[in-house]
Specification:
The protein is an alpha+beta fold. It is built from 3 helices and 7 strands, in the order ααββαβββββ. Strands 1, 2, 3, 4, 5, 6 and 7 form a 7-stranded mixed β-sheet that branches.
Length: 137
């Protein structure tokens, strides 16, 4: 075990701003994918994502702010009354993080769930991998 482990026994990632990565994950859900106002969504994308960001989602790969904005806007239009709710706290490891979430009408059981996994660079999201959970059988 690493002699420099934190209080919880897990070694810290040298030089990583863990709280910054947590913030990126927590802001991404409501401000990008949950935002119905195009101007606010675009501002959030510019704040949270690198110019050359890549989104890997079940329908395909999307590169850059314009593609991400279109994808998020189109997705939002399919269910404008849904909210994204984190399931637990973000987890950070080195320059990456993950956050489980659910989406559905506010106050109701989520219609679907998933996990966002990000790679951060220079304090912004460089890559977002979206894993959707299989519906219960």
């Amino acid at each position: 075990m690493n002699q420099h482990a934190g209080e919880n026994g897990v070694p810290p990632s040298a030089g990583v701003d863990a709280s910054g990565i947590e913030t990126l994950l927590n802001r991404n859900l409501p401000e990008v994918f949950g935002e119905g106002d195009p101007a606010r969504r675009r501002n959030a994308i510019q704040e949270l994502y690198t110019e050359d960001c890549v989104l890997y989602a079940p329908p395909g790969t999307f590169v850059g702010h314009d593609a991400l904005d279109k994808f998020a806007g189109d997705l939002r239009a399919t269910h404008p009354h849904y909210v994204y709710t984190p399931h637990g706290a973000p987890q950070v490891l080195h320059n990456s993080g993950r956050l489980a979430w659910g989406s559905g009408p506010k106050g109701e059981t989520p219609a679907y769930t998933g996990v966002d996994f990000i790679i951060a660079r220079d304090g912004k999201i460089a890559a977002l991998y979206v894993y959707l959970d299989l519906p219960p059988t």
